[in-house]
Amino acid sequence: MIKVEHVSKSFGKLEVLKDVSFQVEEGQTVALIGSSGSGKSTLLRTLNLLETPDSGDITIGDVSFNANDITKTTIAEVRQRTAMVFQRFNLFTNKTALQNVAEALIVVQHKSKAEAFDIARKRLEDVGMANWADHYPRALSGGQQQRVAIARALALNPEYLLFDEPTSALDPELVGEVLGIIQQLAQRKKTMLIVTHEMAFARDVADKVVFLDKGRIAEEGNPKSFFVHPTTQRAQQFLARFR
Ligand code: ADP
Ligand code: MG
């Protein structure tokens, strides 16, 4: 599981995460929601140690660490267990879909090219992109590029998937195909933390919703009750914007 205990993080004088605690159980899909600037990306990046927390404890599967006790080994162990999917797909433009997915398998995991391409083909199949393996990103729609990015994350076989607004950069008609892939991963009981503004998706697919407000968790709970009866005024105000 992912366990976050009393995590705080500032950038200079700006307190971005304030005593944040929550958990993602094995096999759960958790939606992290909140206004722009509330600290969602920082929280996700902290879990991956792209940002260093100032204080608090984090558990990523069998790796636990305190903010004051982060070594290169910790970072390597955390990165081994997590994969992140960003709003912007960040594919290599000079590599095909297949090469994009295979790249880290070859460079980071030192697999043979044959094995890497074999795995990459399977992961492209998982996201419905097998027929596009030899295409370059410029020949793919945004939704297709994001599906390749998801295949690339899956290829490394991470225990935990972290999504940061995976559909925010897409044209509206392309959002569904990417959410559909994430929903399939949820059904396969992948453990996932997803920052999203897609409230219907969070309601229907997430096992739990965590609402971040100005760096604090203002409310969390079962999506069915959260979306119908948010208990805090902040969550009520936030959700009103989506009605
Ligand atoms: P969200 O993803 O919820 O929109 P972020 O985590 O990106 O929020 O940002 C939270 C706050 O932290 C914002 O005020 C943002 O400007 C600030 N911030 C994020 N990253 C940095 C950084 N590297 N340096 C300084 N301020 C940052
Ligand atoms: Mg963000």
From TrEMBL:
EC class name: translocase
Location in the cell: Cell membrane
EC number assigned by the record: 7.4.2.1
SUPFAM superfamilies in UniProt: P-loop containing nucleoside triphosphate hydrolases
Reactions this protein catalyses: a polar amino acid(out) + ATP + H2O = a polar amino acid(in) + ADP + phosphate + H(+)
UniProt keyword Transferase, yes or no: no
PROSITE patterns: ABC_TRANSPORTER_1 (PS00211), ABC_TRANSPORTER_2 (PS50893)
Keyword Ion transport among UniProt keywords: no
Listed Pfam families: ABC_tran (PF00005)
Protein name, as recorded: ABC-type polar-amino-acid transporter
SMART domains attached to this UniProt entry: AAA
Domain ABC transporter: 2-239
Organism, scientific name: Bifidobacterium goeldii
